[in-house]
Amino acid sequence: MKEAYQILNKTFGYQDFRHQQADIIQDILNNKDAMVLMPTGGGKSLCYQIPAIIRPGVGIVVSPLIALMQDQVDALTQLGLSAGYLNSNQSNETQRAIEQQLLSNELDLLYITPERLMSNRMLSLLNQSSISLFAIDEAHCVSQWGHDFRKEYQQLSILHERFPDIPRIALTATADERTRQEIIQQLDLHNAKTYINSFDRPNIHYQISDQTGKADLLKFIKNSHSDDAGIIYCLSRKRVEETADWLTEQGFNALPYHAGLNQHVREQNQKRFLREDGIIIVATIAFGMGIDKPDVRFVAHLNLPKSIEAYYQETGRAGRDGLPADAWMAYGLKDMMLLKQMIQGGDNEMQQRVSHSKLDSLMALCETTSCRRYHLLEYFGEDSKEKCGNCDTCISPPESWDATEASRKALSCIYRSGQRFGIGYLTDILLGKVNDRITKNAHDQITTYGIGKDLSVNEWKGIYRQLIAMGYININFEQYGALYLTDKARPLLRGEIELKLRKQSKKSAKKSAGKQKSALRDVDEELFEALRQCRLDLSKDEGVPPYVIFHDKTLIEMTRKRPSSLIEMGKIAGIGEKKLDKFGQQFLTIVKQFDIHPWFKNELSETINSTLELYLKNLNAQDVADTRELSLSTIYNHLSTAIKHEVIKLEEITEIKDTDIKQIEQAIELCAEGGQEGSKAVFEFLNEEVEYGIIHCVRARLDTIV
Ligand code: ADP
Ligand code: ZN
Questions:
Q1: Phi, psi of 473 (to 5 degrees)
Q2: Ligand nearest to the backbone CA of 370
Q3: pTM, to two decimals
Q4: CATH code linked to domain 400-502
């Protein structure tokens, strides 16, 4: 493990292992199998990369997507490791060369697809090679119950039969209990320890609204993500193209991606998304599996995904770097109808049932009035706080209303008109519209005609949507979307139960995760832009995506800490030896060009920095408090925190005279000796003549965090 820590520090540039990384690595080093469930961005790769480096032989990584192997290999190469991949897009010559490297044990890691791994040629090559481990990435692909089922994954059990002594590690970011069991079964991982991490992605802000207008999407992007990279998912190719064109007209860099585009265009668009800053990809679900881009700042759904698993995986592509990101979704009645129709069009009855139940769970998430995150995590079998504070329902709780009467009208209208009509027509009856169809059917004679004038068309549609989502109503697609009642509807219709529904959302919740730059202060913006430009230039020289050089997180830390030497530079997370060597000087030169007052070389919160900025100008805590409309004690709190972190010196607080400092320090010590740690005792000891805030500042120096 000592070696593992060294590699973590020197090669990857990180201080400590996260989650259970250390235990997992230890297992593999001890020749044991492991099963790892970690959310996207949790750090799964290190779990096999580090043991592959330490153990003799090459680590074989099985991964379903060939398109992204290149980037993974590039990233490892930049770290000074020896890695390769094999896929059918390579020339024969290249493939032979990699195979040669494999045989002569020159590689740390080799990425291959399961199809390739199962080929006789490959198996025989592996027989002749020294192998350190097998890593099976995206392991949920073995599961038929899961949503990414791949036949070839099921054959991977032969690894165990053929190479019984080589440790295997299966990794996935999406697996409910049932999928987990299937992975263990199919891959024969009965002896593996299972490592389950929380699936929570606290940096993702969830927002779901029942509006489908493009205007809302535009507002969302403009307000929160005008320069950011994002993914927008649509259900159809047509909608993908329309949306991409429309966003382009609005001045964004939006590119389409779907299976109908020719391969060259598709690859080109994906490449631009990965290699340029601030590109928006508008895509069908054909896009995204294995996308490792860490700085995707938002994922928007313009249509409902098929299941919670799909929603979770797609939204999970946002914010892999741990910085704030948004998952935004707008859905409507039409989506729900379309998906239901698609499911009923399938021919396998068992599959239909699974799909229906998955869609129902997703709709329940959409219609919930409680915390989205709680609901999501509960679905994956995880307990969490009932309120996360970072989703739309937590931030502006939706109102519910007693919809018993209205629902009865809606159900009754279906019943009275013979359970043969769709929502549009039913709504017309409720509103008492006059038209030929109604007259011809004599539906202006039934008791529900015109009894719904107190609500609008949209409100009735919302009621029908929720009643369908809650299972009171079913849809008959063979009869052009006619609604009919389920057994569940009866007690409601008879007035035996009450029903509360969610109020239609009027406007989308204002708050979102906001800009990733929120981690930056105003004083950092210029430097950050310069560093980003430098990174972009280097990435072009090297032919790799910018994040392969450095992640945003690393650049942000650089702007906050302003390293003044290569040694300080090397302490920043994400800068290992190789990268320090290669890029350190160039970035250092830029940092030095943007001089800053020493007070601002800190990693304290934004509000503390605002206080420091004002204090530097006025040197008076009361003035700062007045300007910021905060209490004096809050300002002193900020100052004392800055002292504690040695960002400013106690002597720089002009309100405190040197002679006083001595006296206050003595008072603090004397009180502490008497067993009185609190500031109140000190305050009294000093005859109530010294402000609490000042006592805090003096105490802060005694507690400095070095
Ligand atoms: P996953 O495959 O689980 O989605 P990755 O392996 O791509 O996640 O890791 C996500 C990000 O977190 C990467 O940028 C990685 O370098 C970083 N990371 C992983 N482990 C650590 C760690 N121990 N300390 C700091 N950063 C880490
Ligand atoms: Zn919440």
A1: -130, 145
A2: 2
A3: 0.78
A4: 1.10.10.10
